Amino acid sequence: MRKLCLKPRRGYKLAQAAPVLSLWFFPASHEGEPDVVELILAESAGAVLRWLHVIAGIAWIGSSFYFIHLDFSLKPRPGLPAGVKGDEWQIRGDGFYHTMKYLVAPAQMPDSLT
Predict the structure, then answer these.
(1) In this structure, is residue 6 part of a structural domain?
(2) 44 lies in some domain
(3) What are 5-24's pLDDT values in tens digits?
(4) Counting Cβ atoms within 10 Å, is residue 22 exposed (0-12), middle (13-18) or buried (19+)?
C-alpha cells in the first residue's frame, strides 16, 4: 500500500482536503518521498490546462468583441427581407462576406440549422 506524503509543498492543501486525490496527484514512493516523474507529469498537465484555459478565455473575449462590432456596424437598407435589422458587407483576404441579422427567426430556415 502506498504511503501518503504530507510534507509542506505545492499541493499541500489538496493533500489535506482530499487524501484520496492526493494519492493520485502526489504518490509516495517506497522511501516516503514523492515520485519525481509523477510529480513532473502532474505539474506539466496542470500547466497545459492553465494555458488552454487562458487561450480559451482570449478566444471567448475576441469573439465577443467581434459580435459587438458586427451588431454596431449593421445598417438598415431598403429592400431587406422582413424581420432583418440590417446587413453588413465585409472584405477579407479570401473573399467577400454579406451578413444579415434577423430579429426573429425567418419564415424559411436553412436545412443546416433544422
Answers:
(1) no
(2) no
(3) 555 555 555 555 555 455 55
(4) buried
In a domain, 103, yes or no: yes
Instruction: Answer whether residue 92 is part of any domain.
Output: yes
pLDDT score at 57: 97
What 8-state DSSP symbol labels residue 112? G
Task: Tell me the three cell numbers of residue 83.
Answer: 424581420
Asked whether the predicted pLDDT for residue 97 surpasses 80, the reply is: yes
Taking 70 as the threshold, does the pLDDT of residue 90 lie above it?
Answer: yes
The whole-angstrom separation of Cα 63 and Cα 67 is 6
Its domain, for residue 84, covers 75-114
Across the range 35-63, mean pLDDT stands at 93
Strand 95-102 to strand 84-92: parallel, antiparallel, or no bridges (unpaired)? antiparallel
